[in-house]
Each structure stands twice: as C-alpha cells, then as structure tokens.
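Handoff note, outgoing to incoming analyst
You'll be picking up this chain. Sequence as last confirmed:
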Amino acid sequence: MQKGLDTRNEFLRAAEYLFRQKGYDQTSVQDILDMTHGSKGGFYHHFPSKDAILQTLCSQRAEQFKAHAEEMIRNTDSRMTRINLILHEANPLRKEESSFIRILLPLLNRADGLTVRAVYQDTLISSFSDLLQSEILMGTRDGTLYPCSPDLAVPILCLNNACWTEASQLLSGALQEKVKCTYAMLQQITVRYRRSIELLLDAPYGSIELAYSEDWLELGSALKIPELR
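Most recent structure output, in case you need it:
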C-alpha cells in the first residue's frame, strides 16, 4: 500500500513540476511518465486522466490552505480577524499561490476546464465550511455578528468562490490581451462580494477583507500583466 501511495505522490510531484515549467496544455501523460520512469498502466491505476491529476493537486492545496488557516487563527482572539484569515486562505488568488495560478488561469475559464474549477470550488467549501461555521456561531454568541441565519458558512464560501472566479476571468482575459485588467477593476469585484458577505453576517461595513492589495500586485507581476505591476 505504501509503495502505491509513493508512486501516486511521485506522479503528482512530477506533474506539478511539468505544469509549472511547460504549462498544463503542453504537458502530456507521456511527459509525466518519462520524468517518473513510470508505466502507463501505473499512471491510469491512480488517475483516469491528466485532468484528474490537476484536480487532485487543487484538492491537496485546499487542505493545505485549511491547515494554514487553523494555524494562523490560533494566534489571534479577534473574531473578524479570524474570519478574514479563513476567507483569505480560502481564496487561491493570493501572492503565495502565483506560480500555481499561472498553471490554472489558462484553463479555469475554458469549457474543458470547468470540471477542474468545480472540483477546486467544491473542495474549498468542504475544507473550510466547518472552520468558518464555528467562527460565525462564536461571533453570534459574543455579539460580534448578528447573522440573518445561523448556517451561513456554505453561502459565504460560495460568494468567496464567485469572487475569485470572476477575478480569474478578468486576469485570464488580460493574459490573452483580450481585456484590460487594473487594480481598481479587481478591487471593484472584491468590494461587491465583500459587501454581500457583510450584509449576510450583519457585520460592520468594511470589516470583511477577501483579498489584499499586495496579492493583486504580486499576481500582476508574476503573470506579467502591465496594469497590475
């Protein structure tokens, strides 16, 4: 069993490296096999397709984001800071993720990439919903929040997903030189979803922060988008 797990992880590591170096579209299953000296049968035993290996990488990252969020919120007692840390970690459009976003952006908004996007969104919701729900309940008890419903974690995470997905469409269009993408345009998207979450939680205006300015600037630099450098 351990050997099978090691083989699976080796395929994942090789695939992520190749996706970063060559791009997702330019990397074939055979490229992954050449790098790992694996067999086609071994690959398809673990992954039914190249899409499946990217979906697995997305799911792994969501779990890593959750673990990081749990570690970070242990260091603060501020309810809104804790909620913002959770929402920020549940947003993959962050400066720390710029190299992985470069893999995803060309694919996320294409018809053949919708499954990858849906898997990523669903995994982010399942990874973070309990953590966020706990903070909402505690915020209701201590008077920080006055939510319209006690069960808001999933709707809020859906809004968070919609926010980064809409921003990714703008970034992707800018990469293809089809649209202009500026800091102000990204902020406009963020503010719209931020305000929706504040209304659901009955939280103070401006208390929710879904993305930081340095995230947009770092992504712009990594993606070589002139208006965001």
